[in-house]
Specification:
This protein is mostly helical. The protein is 72% helix and 3% strand. The chain has one domain. A two-stranded antiparallel sheet has the order 1-2. Strand 1 and strand 2 form a beta hairpin. This is ABC-2 family transporter.
């Protein structure tokens, strides 16, 4: 595994565009944490400091940071599809296979790299959130600090699932730009499926079906935290209560799609004449 990851890292780090995108994909999520230090002066009447609003308290900080950080995954998605596009355009995929790398090892090298970068991103977000939380949070009990850290697991699974989808699209069309366009087409397709399901069944069943689709299932891993923030400030607003927890079956659905995407990527490579 380490040999395969090292092989991919060498390719990525020799490419200037990939290095820049990797750097951006790791730095931008920390803008969420930088928000904690922002002070907004309203014409001298009062100063609003986001960190003092309680949104960086434990345990809600795990929810907030992972939710917003997940929106920056598109930058590394470009790296993932570029890994495949460059292999075909530079003919390195054929050379790797000639040099003794099996097709299974080729796909695994991409997948292991995805897991490596997803794990690294998760660790960095965990460390950043922990430090900001210690500074701003009024809770210092370990039981509270480390509660809801399952959002970190959801963040990791979400990244691995999304990048595996990008890997499949990269293998399918062999071009980075077209692969990213397929993400948009999949988003539209899922809403079309939802609309048809509403017509055929009902609204409740339509949402249940949509929740099993790739992009929607990945989004559901970390629900939006806005209502939760409002509820924490105004507990009497019980009408805003909703289920924001990370559920095991949501993780299983995304892991299932991840396995499907990796398998399909391997099948495409195995059947394709290089």
């Amino acid at each position: 595994m380490l040999r395969l990851v090292n092989l991919e890292l060498q390719k990525l780090l020799l490419n200037r565009a990939s290095k820049v995108l990797i750097f951006i994909s790791f730095i931008l999520p920390f803008t969420v944490l930088i928000l904690s230090s922002i002070k907004i002066n309203f014409f001298g009447f009062f100063t609003l400091e986001l960190g003092e609003l309680g949104i960086f308290n434990f345990p809600i900080i795990w929810h907030i940071t992972t939710f917003f950080a997940s929106y920056f995954k598109l930058f590394f998605a470009i790296v993932v599809v570029s890994m495949i596009g460059n292999e075909y355009s530079n003919k390195t995929i054929k050379q790797n296979l000639i040099d003794g790398l099996s097709k299974k090892e080729f796909i695994l090298s991409k997948f292991y790299t995805i897991v490596f970068f997803s794990l690294l991103a998760t660790v960095l977000i965990a460390i950043g959130s922990f430090c900001i939380g210690l500074y701003y949070s009024s809770y210092t009990e370990a039981s509270i600090i480390f509660s809801e850290t399952e959002f970190l697991l959801a963040y990791f699974v979400k990244l691995v699932g999304f990048f595996s989808l990008c890997l499949f699209f990269g293998m399918l069309v062999k071009r980075s730009a077209f692969a990213l366009a397929f993400l948009f087409l999949l988003y539209i397709f899922e809403w079309i499926v939802f609309g048809v399901a509403v017509k055929v069944f009902n609204l409740d069943m339509a949402w249940k079906i949509k929740n099993f689709l790739p992009l929607e299932s990945m989004y559901n891993l970390i629900n939006q935290p806005f209502q939760r923030v409002v509820m924490s400030k105004y507990p009497e607003k019980i009408d805003m209560a909703y289920d924001y927890a990370v559920h095991w079956y949501e993780l299983v659905i995304v892991l299932g799609w991840t396995a499907v995407f990796i398998f399909l990527s391997y099948r495409l490579l195995k059947q394709r004449d290089l």
